[in-house]
TrEMBL record:
<dbReference type="InterPro" id="IPR000891">
    <property type="entry name" value="PYR_CT"/>
</dbReference>
<dbReference type="Pfam" id="PF00682">
    <property type="entry name" value="HMGL-like"/>
</dbReference>
<feature type="domain" description="Pyruvate carboxyltransferase">
    <location>
        <begin position="5"/>
        <end position="256"/>
    </location>
</feature>
<dbReference type="Pfam" id="PF22617">
    <property type="entry name" value="HCS_D2"/>
</dbReference>
<dbReference type="InterPro" id="IPR013477">
    <property type="entry name" value="NifV/FrbC"/>
</dbReference>
<dbReference type="InterPro" id="IPR013785">
    <property type="entry name" value="Aldolase_TIM"/>
</dbReference>
<comment type="similarity">
    <text>Belongs to the alpha-IPM synthase/homocitrate synthase family.</text>
</comment>
<keyword id="KW-0808">Transferase</keyword>
<dbReference type="GO" id="GO:0046912">
    <property type="term" value="F:acyltransferase activity, acyl groups converted into alkyl on transfer"/>
</dbReference>
<protein>
    <submittedName>
        <fullName>Citramalate synthase</fullName>
    </submittedName>
</protein>
<dbReference type="GO" id="GO:0019752">
    <property type="term" value="P:carboxylic acid metabolic process"/>
</dbReference>
<dbReference type="InterPro" id="IPR054691">
    <property type="entry name" value="LeuA/HCS_post-cat"/>
</dbReference>
<dbReference type="InterPro" id="IPR002034">
    <property type="entry name" value="AIPM/Hcit_synth_CS"/>
</dbReference>
Length: 372
């Protein structure tokens, strides 16, 4: 079987931790089905310890029998795991703080306590579910020797995957590459990278982790998540294929529709310039760019927009220039003298400034009619 990088989506867990976001069951079903149909490798679907309502919702997702592994997120607390077992999920993620900052100042414990609690919870989970992910919270600020000790223990306990979390989004790609490749050398357990986007580097950091040898990446649709969010599914998936030339199972043509689905469910608009799924990311306005793609799309694209269910478009703006206007007029069968075209360009520029947006074809034709 050909090796590929696993895309582990946590939109229904970490994504739902974004301020003001709360998915109802129909919305969770819709998102889970969309991701599953697109070929996502794993779905982290919630936190059963939140209560009976969450347990019921996750249980209903399990009954859908989607062709994808469903896991839940848990603290290293037996009561959390017992709540997860009630849902019938195939796997559980068990999260343990690994930095001294969090061990001492959040838990008020020590490293020995963390290892002991980890051991108890993993052994308990191995009896109840088929897949166990060990999440290393705040691993980016943890001591390397302690991480190595945890990895060795995780292997003995039979953990299926270890998740390295840059919980506060403090890392940068070079540090990730050189640090994480050392973890890869000592780990016999597959490693996953979980990025936060506090400094705008979640996608770059996720790619650096893959280059260092990590086999899985944690993502959310649109980068939805706490604070500045997580690594974006669409950015990571496309970059894996077209930048790193890695094999991904996900159907990239579905990314746009998935993004719209989550946007509606979360009541959060997709920014116009959002990579991959933003309204403007395949739209060309400057005359130089429009002329370039008319000659060869490769002049101004790194991957075909059709590969992600999109297409090229053009708009008229401040930098569109004479050639772009003439091309539009010719397509409409309109022939104007030089003086009229000069007047038209001035009016287009004025209207662009007034509306503060690109002009649509109807806007242009309205200006043409008024100028003739």
């Amino acid at each position: 079987m050909e090796q590929r990088i696993l895309l582990c989506d946590t939109t229904l867990r970490d994504g739902e931790q974004a301020p003001g976001v709360a998915f109802g069951l129909p919305e969770k079903e819709m998102i889970a089905r969309a991701l599953s149909d697109a070929g996502i490798d794993e779905l982290e679907v919630g936190v059963p310890a939140m209560g009976d309502g969450e347990i019921k919702t996750i249980s209903q997702l399990v009954t859908l029998q989607l062709p994808v592994r469903l896991i839940t997120w848990n603290r290293a607390v037996l009561s959390d795991l017992q709540a997860s077992y009630k849902t019938g999920v195939e796997g559980v993620a068990i999260s343990i703080p690994t930095s001294d900052q969090q061990i001492k100042n959040k838990l008020r414990k020590d490293r020995a306590w963390v290892l002991d609690q980890m051991g108890q919870c993993v052994l308990n989970a191995k009896k109840e579910v088929g897949y166990v992910v060990l999440g290393l919270e705040d691993a980016s600020r943890a001591d390397f020797t302690f991480l190595a000790e945890i990895l060795a223990e995780a292997q003995k306990l039979g953990v299926d995957r270890v998740r390295f979390a840059d919980t506060v989004g403090i890392l940068e790609p070079l540090k990730i590459f050189f640090t994480l490749q050392e973890l890869v050398k000592i780990s016999r357990v597959p490693l996953e990278f979980h990025a936060h986007n506090d400094l705008g580097m979640a996608t770059a950091n996720s790619l650096a982790a893959v280059q260092a040898g990590f086999k899985a990446v944690s993502v959310t649709v649109g980068g939805l998540g706490e604070r500045a969010g997580n690594a974006s599914l669409e950015e990571v998936a496309v970059a894996l294929k077209y930048t790193l030339q890695e094999k991904v199972q996900l159907d990239l043509k579905r990314l746009n529709s998935i993004g719209l689905t989550v946007s509606l469910a979360s009541n959060r608009k997709i920014p116009r310039a959002k990579p991959i799924i933003g309204e403007d990311v395949f739209t060309h306005t400057s005359s130089i760019h429009i002329d370039g793609i008319q000659k060869d799309f490769a002049n101004y694209q790194t991957y075909p927009p059709e590969s992600v269910g999109r297409g090229h478009s053009t708009s008229i703006g401040k930098y569109s220039g004479r050639k772009t206007i003439l091309r539009l007029l010719k397509a409409k069968g309109i022939d104007l003298d030089q003086e009229t075209i000069d007047e038209l360009l001035i009016k287009i520029l004025q209207q662009t400034h007034k509306l503060k947006r690109p002009l649509e074809e109807d806007d242009i034709m309205g200006i043409v009619v008024s100028a003739c």
